[in-house]
Amino acid sequence: MRVYWDRIGTLGPIYRLLGRGFNDREIANKLNLTESKVRECVYWMLQSFEFPDRCELARDAVGTNHPLQRYR
Q1: What is the pTM of this model?
Q2: How far is residue 71's CA from residue 36's CA, in Å, rounded to a whole number?
């Protein structure tokens, strides 16, 4: 079952931008989302992927090969 964040297409772009070192405000501005939505999505990823903190999530995003690098 696809989660809400996946259905609206924000998981991948937020994950990639997080891996590039962007903060919530910068991600929200780039993707035309609210900071609150970005924080909720990051929180969901932390819980779902069982990472202890945002740094570990970002480290994982950096180490993942993404075929779509649209957000530069």
Answers
A1: 0.76
A2: 20
Model confidence over 16-56: pLDDT tens digits? Answer: 999 999 999 999 999 999 999 999 999 999 998 899 999 99
17 located within any domain = yes
Please give the structure tokens belonging to residue 18: 């997080």
Residue 16 lies in a domain: yes
CATH number for position 23: 1.10.10.10
